[in-house]
Design brief:
heterodimer, A: 290 residues, two-stranded antiparallel sheet, 2 strands, B: two-stranded antiparallel ribbon, 12 helices, 1% strand
């Protein structure tokens, strides 16, 4: 350890650096404050309740809303969650309850981490290649081809999966070992132990992870941009182009019509409201369960 | 909890054949099989994604070969496709973002892991920094168009007017370009870098810090000579992971980088990235362009997954694997 400089010099340097890192941390929150301020000022300022159930306006027209986009986002996030939440929790259970510390567990966890780093647009590219590009893909009597809510939801599911796996795994690992041992000693089998002891003990933390995955998926644009596409109308089935809040914001962000730009801000407000509430609630739940 | 009811003492042999016990045995086998299938399904999904994108890219790989990587045109009408400006744009924008975000992220990590603040205040700050990562990228894009670009444009024009001889400032700013894109990108990867650097810094043994303090070291003597050297590889891993995130980021870039397939040294010139071209072209692509876009996707996938794998291996070795501060 090199303490050769004068104590006073080192002390002044240390104080200066203290102030610098504090300043940097505060500065990093300026963009957050600015984003929130703009979204509230421009978004909430222009928000009318009727926007929540009206259709988007035609170019240059007044009025309108993003009702179909809100429905589309909720629908696709629900499809994504329906696919990824059970799969993710089962995977986490396998990692912690059936193969803890094994080589295959390490490989699976590594794959989940790599998957969590997959650029979101590539989830869209993958689904585009598997489903969308085959205009006529009939499976079990359903048409999976073309732009659809199913394709968009599937792409979102791919992004949610690793988040659910990794957070559920962390939650399950925190359940004390002795609870499992006591259950097994009483004669319960593994499945009974998982379903009646381990999972209930970890469920609030798992729900936190699921909520964060949902919040992330609700804001994702790239994976649904060319799998669900967009429409200005209500959807009547899961097999047609579907509007979403995120794509609406993107499409309306740089058009020359004030009404549409304002609507992009209002949609941002609604979207950020959903995302922030989810994050804050899950933060509180996570803190309570610690 | 629900377990089998205790065997009646007289008929314990009957209990073994009890239907309920039999059923729970079958369910046990089924359930463990389901967890097994889900887990390997996740692995299979990753492999499938790689194979699917690679397979769909084959026609373009056959047609253009490696020349695709050095080609400079993206001409849908004549089916001429080249990726060089896009690869250049992806690398430069994410490198710039990393250059901004790494020092800031490490500073935030230091502020939030060394005992500066009472625990309660600290957890509020941590939460706020994490919120930066929660804001959807399309909203960052919207914010960038209406807030960041109006700030960077006059800045760029002033720098160009006074220091235009310097290659980085060699063009005037028309709005979208590397500078606003990299700035917003830096904000987006900042929480990742801060969180992972923070958990790397936390691995410093308390005894070392206390020992140094007892020798008369100031807080920053300890940080610079003990904590940072110990955390160095974890911080490096955090930066690499941030780079992977930045390269795959799409929407904010599609809205801010200018979508212009050119190679310019200037920070203010509009450019394009792989992800943002994919976002703009996939919806309407047909025929050979789909294959060319798949080729492009494959390049992006190889870059990002490779970088992420390296980062994960570094982080796994250093033990700094949690995603939170």
């Amino acid at each position: 350890m090199d303490l050769s400089r004068k104590p006073r010099v080192r002390l002044i340097f240390s104080r200066a650096m203290d102030i610098a890192v504090g300043f940097v941390t505060l500065a990093a929150l300026v963009p957050l404050a600015s984003v929130l301020y703009m979204v509230v000022r421009k978004g909430a300022g222009n928000l009318r309740w009727s926007m929540l159930w009206e259709l988007p306006p035609a170019a240059g027209m007044d009025g309108g809303g993003f009702g179909n986009a809100l429905v589309g986002t909720l629908l696709m996030v629900a499809i994504g969650a329906a696919v990824s939440v059970p799969t993710g929790i089962l995977t986490a259970i396998f990692l912690t309850e059936y193969s803890l510390g094994s080589k295959s567990a390490r490989l699976i966890r590594f794959c989940a981490k790599i998957l969590s780093g997959l650029p979101s647009i590539l989830a869209g590219v993958f689904v585009f290649g598997v489903l969308v590009i085959n205009r006529d893909l009939h499976l079990w009597g359903w048409n999976f081809g073309g732009f659809s809510a199913i394709a968009g939801g599937g792409a979102l599911g791919i992004l949610m999966l690793p988040i659910v796996i990794l957070s559920a795994e962390e939650a399950l690992l925190r359940v004390p070992r002795f609870l499992r041992e006591a259950s097994l000693a009483l004669g319960a089998n593994r499945t009974q132990t998982v379903l009646h002891i381990t999972l209930p003990a970890a469920i609030s933390t798992i729900i936190t992870g699921v909520m964060l995955a949902v919040a992330r998926a609700a804001g994702e644009t790239a994976p649904i941009l060319f799998t669900a596409l967009f429409t200005s109308y209500w959807i009547s089935s899961l097999h047609e182009p579907t509007a979403s809040m995120a794509v609406l914001i993107y499409n309306f962000s740089s058009v020359p019509y004030d009404n549409m730009v304002n609507m992009a801000w209002s949609a941002s407000f609604v979207l950020i409201f959903i995302v922030l509430v989810t994050n804050i609630v899950s933060h509180l739940v996570a803190n309570r369960s610690k | 909890m629900q377990t089998e009811t205790a065997p009646p003492p007289a008929a314990s042999t009957q209990w073994i054949g009890d239907k309920k016990a039999q059923r729970s045995k079958v369910f046990d086998a089924f359930f463990s099989w389901a967890t097994f299938a889900a887990s390997w399904g996740t692995v299979a999904l990753l492999v499938w994604i790689a194979l699917q994108v690679g397979y769909a890219a084959l026609p373009a790989v056959k047609q253009y070969g490696l020349g695709f990587i050095v080609g400079r045109e993206w001409d849908t009408n004549n089916d001429v496709y080249g990726a060089l400006p896009l690869i250049y744009g992806t690398l430069v924008s994410s490198a710039l973002a990393l250059l901004i975000a790494t020092p800031l992220g490490v500073a935030i990590a230091i502020f939030l892991t060394e005992d500066y603040l009472p625990l309660k205040v600290r957890s509020v700050f941590k939460f706020l920094v994490e919120l930066l990562a929660a804001i959807p990228s399309v909203i960052y894009g919207l914010w960038g168009i209406y807030i960041v670009i109006p700030i960077t444009t006059p800045m760029g024009n002033w720098l160009n007017a006074h220091f235009g001889w310097f290659p980085l400032f060699s063009t005037p700013s028309n709005g979208p370009g590397f500078l606003p894109a990299a700035f917003v990108l830096a904000i987006m990867i900042l929480p990742t870098i801060a969180a992972l650097s923070g958990s790397a810094l936390k691995t410093t043994p308390q005894a070392l810090k206390e020992g140094a303090a007892a020798l008369g070291a100031t807080r920053w003597d300890v940080i610079l000579q003990i904590s940072l050297p110990i955390a160095a590889s974890g911080i490096f891993g955090a930066a690499v992971l941030g780079l992977g995130r930045a390269m795959g980021e799409t929407m904010a870039l599609a809205m801010l980088v200018g979508n212009n397939n050119q190679i310019s040294a200037s920070l203010f010139a509009p450019a394009n990235t792989i992800a943002s071209l994919l976002a703009n072209h996939f919806g309407e692509a047909t025929g050979l362009e789909v294959a060319a876009l798949m080729y492009l996707s494959f390049i992006l996938m190889a870059l990002t997954l490779g970088i992420n794998a390296v980062a994960e291996l570094i982080l796994e070795r250093t033990g700094a694997t949690t995603r939170h501060l």
